[in-house]
Amino acid sequence: MSWLVVGKKYLKKDSSDIFEFVGMGSEHGTFKVLDLHGTATEHVFPHADLKLFRATDKAVPAKLALELATKLQMDVCDTWSLELEKAQVQAALLTNHSEMLVFVVARESLLDVSQLLFTNTHKIYAAGKIKKHGLKIYPFGSVQLLKEDLAKKQEAQQAGKVLLKVKSSGRQYQVLAGKVDIQKETGAIPAFFWIPSTEEEAEATMDLSSTVYQGWLEIPCLKARKPLQAGEQLQYYKPPVQTGRKKLKTTRLAFGKAGFVQPFKASWKGRSANSMSCCSTCAPASTVPALLWQRAMVEIQERVALAFAGGRHVPIPPALLVVGSDGSKYLKVRPSHGAICKLICGEAKCKEAKNPSLAASPALAKLHGQIQKALEPDQPGDDIFEAKDCKRKQLSKKADAPETVTISVNGTDVVLLAPKSSKTTDLIVKMEPQMMQAVFDMLAVDCEACFRELPKRAYTRSGKYRGKRGRSEEHSGKDEES
DNA sequence: AAGAGAGGCGTGTACTATGA
DNA sequence: TCATAGTACACGCCTCTCTT
């Protein structure tokens, strides 16, 4: 029985040819080698030489079909037209910047950066008087294509990313701030990125607008919105974004206490308040809808609250709710999240603990072990060359990974979303009462130990928190100052 | 293949708004 | 004044992508 597999490709030591195994004789092994034109030549090797062969994934040299070569020509390839556009955007941005960093209004005296005052904390102030519109600052840095995804675009805009827009294609490019090292005196100050936004209109000294470079590229621009006096910080006005909290505030002004109200129950798709209870003896893990009013327009947002082991309902933040590709709802059981700890361990225990977290739970570790095991590829066979294939399978595990994984928890089949990496600590459990019940039951055993005995991750305080006394010190053991 | 850099994610602290 | 919920952000590790 040979380890060589008929039809598979092999490399031979000291040869660049790719051999396809044809068959084994009593004294020789037979291979064939294909040339560019598909013509095969036969090669025969004695058994003693077969140890020189190793399995390979390399492709046999062959001509590409003319149609394919035509299709993949550089000048019709999408990738390269995108590359070209990116290069043009990059060039336009830097050309525009070098010409316009400090804009000179016609017949005004030249301004230069000496009329600005830069700080090591990445702020910019006027060093002298600057006239209205007498200063324009453009971004510079390397550009990167922003994915078409609309949600990402909105997210990028909310996060204050600096975006360029190609008018013809509509594609957006993010400008990444250039690097500067003040100690080493290297790089260049990315002035545009050192001008923060303010929600106080009165504090704003700059306006954010955009200009169109040579008719095809929209580039953001910050310009002085009023005459600036020495010492005034450069910052631009950005209207406040309504947060959930603020929406709630507006609502309460309009409607008084909305909270978790009765009328909603009727519209909760026919579910009763304790529909998540798995049996009469088990603790109810129920979903209770709540209302979140936005402004006075009567917009309704459904929210989820869960109860477990006779505890009170815990509102679940939207960040912990995930919807699968089939529309199924999942709960992100994030072990360090206050709401999750409160749900599983109860409010009383959480009150006793400072920063309750189940991250150190042995039961959690066990569940992760089960998930990893369930996601492992099949074990390799006897073929000595399969070890290589196995490694390749592991490497491509992420791309090939199924969306969900099912594990057995105390006899209950629990469906979870597959973790994105082996380090993911959140369990993303399908929102089915029995499944959540099984997981919660298992984790609840560790509440006491996690809150009292088991070590928590150390936290090194730095930045603006350096030197402050905090609650973490009792367990971090790292903050030795004072 | 190795290294660099950007960005995502998990964990934890600090802060703020709100209500009792 | 205190407790609570929610949000913002720091930090460190990781993955992914790009470059060399």
Report what the structure shows.
The protein is α+β, with helices and mostly antiparallel strands and 482 residues long. 24% of the residues lie in helices and 22% in strands. The strands form 8 sheets. Strands 8, 9, 10, 11, 15 and 16 form a 6-stranded antiparallel β-sheet that branches. The chain has a 5-stranded antiparallel β-sheet with strand order 4-3-2-1-5, with no helix packed on it. The protein has a 3-stranded antiparallel β-sheet with strand order 20-21-24. β22 and β23 (412-417) form a beta hairpin. The longest helix has 23 residues, at 78-100. The termini are far apart. The structure holds a DNA duplex (20 and 20 nucleotides).
* General shape: flat
Number of helices: 12
Number of strands: 24
Spans of at least 5 consecutive residues whose pLDDT stays below 50 are 101-111, 149-158, 241-300, 378-400, 458-482
Radius of gyration: 32 Å
Helix fraction?
A: 10-25%
Tell me the number of structural domains.
3
Mean pLDDT: 63
Largest sheet: 6 strands, antiparallel
Structural class label = alpha+beta
* Strand-residue proportion: 15-25%
| Ends distance | 73 Å
TL;DR of this structure?
Residues 470-482 have a biased composition (Basic and acidic residues). Residues 461-482 are annotated as: Disordered. This protein is of the alpha+beta class and 482 residues long.
